[in-house]
Amino acid sequence: MRRPCFGDAGAGQKNRKADFPLDSRGGRSLTIVGMGKKQTDEMPHLTRTEAIILDLLVRPGMLELYGLEIVNASHGSITRGSVYVLLSRMEDKGLVTSRKEAAPEFAGGLPRVMYKATGLGQRAFGALRAAREVWRTGLAFTPEGLL
């Protein structure tokens, strides 16, 4: 038997509300779509390599980096073959933005694509750093403050 889905109106049935997926806290998660990007009320999940890239981009003095600068600065943690795939995925998540740098006239080739962390990327990395510190020190937080 086929399960009714959103929009089905069977014999005398009214349309049902859409089932929103459960978030990590057991509540409903609402995804907002605007400006061509999805935004959610949940903290974005960061992979190890995404965290390494954000760490490089949020350091003082590192406003923008291009892909090969990220590879070199990561000391082997990010490879040339994966850096642009990671950056594209991070841009889709809203963690980084990119812009094309004007190509110098004396050099041939394509213009460099420069990447920088967005506000969301900075907040996500800050939250990850804080969570790691809590884990490392064994501190626990309650709604009233520190235990």
Which stretches of 5+ consecutive residues score pLDDT under 50? Answer: 1-23, 27-36
| C-alpha geometry | elongated
CATH class category of the domain at 40-136? Mainly Alpha
Mean pLDDT across every amino acid position? 75
> What portion of residues is helical?
25-40%
CATH homology superfamily name of the domain at 40-136: Winged helix-like DNA-binding domain superfamily/Winged helix DNA-binding domain
Distance separating the two termini: 53 Å
The strand count comes to 7
Strands across the major sheet, in which order? 3-5-4
CATH architecture of the domain at 40-136: Orthogonal Bundle
- Largest beta sheet, briefly? 3 strands, antiparallel
| Secondary-structure element string | EEHEHHEEHEE
CATH fold title of the domain at 40-136:
Arc Repressor Mutant, subunit A
Q: Helical stretch count?
A: 4
The rounded Rg comes to 21 Å
Q: How is this structure best summarized?
A:
With 147 residues, this protein is of the alpha+beta class. It has a domain at 40-136: Arc Repressor Mutant, subunit A, CATH 1.10.10. The protein has helices at 48-58, 67-73, 80-93, 119-137; strands at residues 31-34, 37-40, 65-66, 96-100, 113-117, 141-142, 145-146.
